[in-house]
Amino acid sequence: MTGKRTISRHREFRRSLNGRILRSTTLNILVLVIICCVIMAFSMQSLANNILLDSLQPMARQSAKTVEANIHMLADRMMTIAGDPRMTLTAGENTAGSGAQALYESRESLLTEAAETYELHNIALYDPEGRKLQETGGAPENLDSGFFGLLKETDNLTTYSSTIFGDKLGITMGMPVKENGETILYVVGVYKYDTLNDVISSINIGKHGAAYMVNRDGIVTGHPDQSLVLAGST
User: Fold this and answer.
1) Model pTM score
2) Which of 31, 132, 148, 187 is least surrounded, with the fewest CB atoms within 10 Å of its CB?
3) pLDDT exceeds 80 at position 186
4) CA distance linking residue 172 with residue 153, whole number of Å
């Protein structure tokens, strides 16, 4: 009887030992798997970030060039409008009627034509003091002081950094109109926001990513969600 009990205890001890070894081995394997998964997750996240960064840098540069090219195109149009002979048409030249009335009608025709051709919110002529003389589309009576200061300082084509125009979005550009080398007027137009919006909206960065533009003060000037631009978000 004693021998049988000894054998039974020996078997129970072996089973208990095997169980402890199995549990210990299983626990070690689980810990090792968890550690490997964590390392792999961090490695994949780092790799994904590096790949995304490598992709975003040339994408951002190319998008900036596209926006710049579009703005240059708008600038060329504004320069063409300011340089149109109808801006400084003198009495009796290619028109009928008195000089002042003929000049007014000539400029009015030019502004209307430009607004329709170039998809402008509005376009207007301002005197050297920034007061409105003629317009089409509901331009403000006086130029914004910040923009007018830049326009006078450069005495050349000027693009306003703000894209907010009243309760709308647009790109404001101004150009002096010269006669005999002297600035006699400023032509200021507000292009529709589509020029920037088309570029920004075409950039897709994953499901939750987005491209946007800010000015030098960190204020959002271009974003797929236009309410953020109108709110002056930073």
Assistant:
1) 0.71
2) 31
3) yes
4) 16
